[in-house]
Design a protein that fits this description.
Blueprint lengths: L1 E2 L5 E4 L4 E3 L2 E3 L5 H4 L10 E7 L4 E7 L7 E7 L2 E7 L10 E6 L6 E4 L3 E7 L4 E7 L8 E3 L21 H4 L4 H6 L6 H8 L3
Antiparallel strand pairs: 1-2, 2-10, 3-4, 5-12, 6-11, 6-13, 7-10, 7-12, 8-9, 8-11
Length: 194
């Protein structure tokens, strides 16, 4: 496991054991995840199936309690993007993109307060992810994934399919001005809980 440049975002590439029967790997193990220094209590597991060009996010939840995620792609391929939405963070507004697919078997840990988005690069792409908190619509928010201020270099060779809810999401500047975004200090305090 290694840390990305945004605090609270980690990539895990599991060891794959293969033989003539196929392969086996642990895509999540609590001992490995604990090396991030973040508490991750599993509350919900999700499965998302998308066609090529489906763009989901940038999603985040109010902190506390937020919603940490542990994400992998088991069919197809995605461009997974983490955005630092924590006001006051040294990396506020910065993003990182990581390709997830069944060949590289990478997994991402995304701490509370960070925004999450992904783009399906192939048809019939399946993403599975674990969440530290159950979905709670009143605490869930978004930032528009095509906001030019985010500077995300989405592939230009496809048309995007975006939900009406995501298309209506505010820009990063609008979300910050309205007080919608989590604070960096509040997130750090939340991460430090026992």
């Amino acid at each position: 496991m290694y840390s990305l440049t945004i605090e609270g975002a980690y990539v895990f590439t599991p060891r794959v054991h293969g033989d003539e029967r196929g392969s086996f790997h642990e895509w999540f193990h609590q001992d490995v995840q604990q090396k991030t220094g973040h508490t991750f209590a599993l509350a919900q597991a999700n499965c998302s199936v998308s066609s090529r060009g489906v763009l989901r996010g940038v999603h985040f939840a109010d902190v506390p309690p937020g919603q940490a995620k542990y994400v992998t792609c088991v069919r197809g391929a995605i461009m997974d993007v983490i955005v630092d939405l924590r006001v006051g963070s040294p990396t506020f507004g910065r993003h990182e993109a990581v390709r997830l697919d069944p060949d590289n078997r990478r997994c991402l840990f995304i701490a509370e307060g960070l925004g999450h988005a992904f783009l399906a690069l192939t048809d019939d792409t399946m993403v599975i992810y674990l969440c530290s908190e159950p979905y709670a619509p009143q605490r869930e928010h978004g930032v528009h994934p095509l906001d030019p201020d985010l500077g995300i270099a989405w592939p230009s060779d496809m048309e995007f399919v975006i939900s009406a809810k995501d298309a209506a999401s505010p820009s990063l500047a609008e979300a910050q001005k309205s007080g919608l975004l989590p604070g960096y200090r509040e997130c750090l305090n939340f991460y430090a809980r026992p």
